[in-house]
Design brief:
The chain has about 800 residues and is α/β, with parallel strands linked by helices. Helix content is about 35%, strand content about 20%. The chain has 27 helices and 38 strands. α12 crosses α14, α15 packs across α17 (about 525-535) and α26 (about 785-795) crosses α27 (about 795-800). It is globular, with a radius of gyration of 30 Å. It starts with a strand and ends in a 10-residue tail after the last helix.
Amino acid sequence: MGNRKKLVLVGNGMAGVRAIEHLIKLAPDAYSITIFGAEPHPNYNRIMLSSVLAGGTDMKDIVINDWDWYADNHIQLHAGHTVTKIDTKRKKVYSQQGIEADYDVLIMATGSNPFMLPLPGANKEGVIGFRDIRDTEIMQETSQKYKKAAVIGGGLLGLEAARGLLNLGMDVSVVHINGILMNRELDEPAARMLQRELEAQGMKFLLSKQSVAITGRRRAKALQFGDGSEVEADLIVMAVGIRPNVELAKLTGIEVNRGIVVDDFMRTNIPDVYAVGECAEHRGIAYGLVAPLYEQGAVLAKLLAGVETTGYEGSVTSTKLKVSGVDVFSAGQFGEGPGTRALRIQDDLAGTYKKIVIKNGKLVGAVLFGDTSDGSELFAIMKKGESVEGKEKELLLGFSPAAGGASSPASRLEAMTDDEIVCGCNGVSKGDIADAVLNKGCNTLSSIKGCTKASASCGGCKPQVEGLLKLYAGDAAGVPVKEGICGCTEHSRDEIVAAIKEMRLMTVKEVMNVMQWKNEEGCTKCRPSLNYYLGMLWPAEYEDQKESRFTNERYHANIQKDGTYSVVPRVYGGVTTPADLIKIATVAEKFDVPMVKFTGGQRLDLLGVKKEDLPKIWEELDMPSGHAYGKTLRTVKTCVGNTFCRFGTQDSIAMGIRMEKAYERMTAPAKVKLAVSGCPRNCAEATIKDLGVVAIDGAWELHVGGNGGIHVRATELLCVVKTEDEVMEWSSAYLQYYRENATWNERTAQWIERVGLDHVKKALENREDRLALVERLEKTLSYTKDPWKEIVENKELRKNFEQLSGAQPVQG
């Protein structure tokens, strides 16, 4: 690591991180990488925010590189850190929070900001842009309290924002200064068809309107126009365009025009300083679409890796509207300027429109509405710049022979070059898909999606991906293949566990090597699972491999969305003492913990703790870890039971404390939650836990396989026993059987559904078998230590928290 050059990336967005991804593939050991990101999130797909707003996609599904990706690639990420100063003489970068970093190479990828119209009242509450996760959250929160929204801007982003707000139940008016929608991408016939379609969906339009003021006291109430009219609005979203974020570059002395001025190799006027993405201006153009930004990143990565490359020469761009039920495609120069010839075909009954623009015998532009299936083929022809003379009818009528076309999508796909982008959302090329099919065994659409992310976002490229799958896989396309635990191997969980047992494999690397992993480094799915299986099979011999664990389990605390952590000390059975409460309160005050909250499992959670403070907090608490972050026993929730409650039939508190003390450091394939209820009224919610114990008159019921999460599942009755010792015997046997037989990351609810309760009952019916399972569990637990105490007492382990304060996450 010592002889690596230091690379600092300012900006944790799509363009900059894409360049880093390329660079890591080309020269994995050349650079020590630090990334500063102003948002408290890992790298996510900004263009999918409209899908999140519309409700078709979950926020977690738009993450491109999760927290663990940074750690796996030894990248130091400062999330939630805005860089405020760059010293190009000393080659240092400084963040608002006081972090500084040295660089040999600096990449500026600061993106752009939404252009906010300087209207009177624009600073009122309820007036926002639409640019990041926070804007999306504000719109979702606002829709729960208010009902009238106005979106200023009838372009791509404005219409997507409006569609999302409609889905959230708001009354939405789109305000546009131009007389037609998407006037930068569509001609009038296509724009009118689009307007009719969106009006049918419930959207309202105020066209040729100039916004002049926002009225209201503290919060926006209405938007006024130059003609004296107005529209009521509690939420006003400005989607009128973006501006390159160049303030930092200006302060630094980097040449700036509209964007940061770069040459064909993305170099600025300052040595060793580069720029990519929406902040960069190349040959007078600052691009706001993802495909050109990925192309820029690929050129820069090759340059930094020392790989020969031609420079970036600019991009022909295309756009698609991501609104459910509306297909719109636009590419190149769709306007009819001097020397151009436009050909159109329109079917008002079918609701389709197609226009192509030809200049000097070449296709230079296209507009499609209603049926966009030919879009990618037209765009590819446009980028190639090949002559289309004599083929105009084919281009207009379509590529299928039935439509009069001479070529087919299959032949078009064959003619594509390997570096041609197929999935614009995720920057996946034809070559990437070919590699997935031919070298990684992907022969279904879902496996290609999992391996490359192609078609995983808006889905517009799905026909092309399916076509390439058929092209490369032939008759094997879509045929089910033997499913491995991840894309790195074809071996199943049972085969891996059997091999570890038979060959006494002792390390993750050894397993991968002996079992011939396709990806010799593994991935974030297989490494943690192998780490668990090895520890489960060889508790005495195996040394836990920290770098194969997720961020939460490496730092023994739950990471929050702002990059801070939450600390949950162990409170057995939910029962605490005045002394422990005083201790928790004192620590919370001393370390300025922003929030102290009771959890659903009856525990106290200290939220908003800085990573560098974790060991000091654990030390002063002097309490065991509540393991609220790992694939372990979380809590044993209890009700009052017969200790105080007039309905209680058994001592549920004592039973719960006994179980929690017995299993508190137990690892498992997934998190495990327990509960003990003192009577069938079930106040501890034992019947939606992984293992729930319910007291009845003179006995205990053991319930298993419950889940109270997104997919609620009630438990099934495993058995009824009479004594507390029998509760412990059956519980230990059940938990160990689950530990030994479930797939890593499989909750008990999924496991029970897969194998069936009868299978588990049969496995536990013989007392000799139960006692053998209990013995194996107790043996495993005898080797465990409290992780908080271990880190507090070990100076080397503490360094992971103190040396890299502010970085999130870091190499484990």
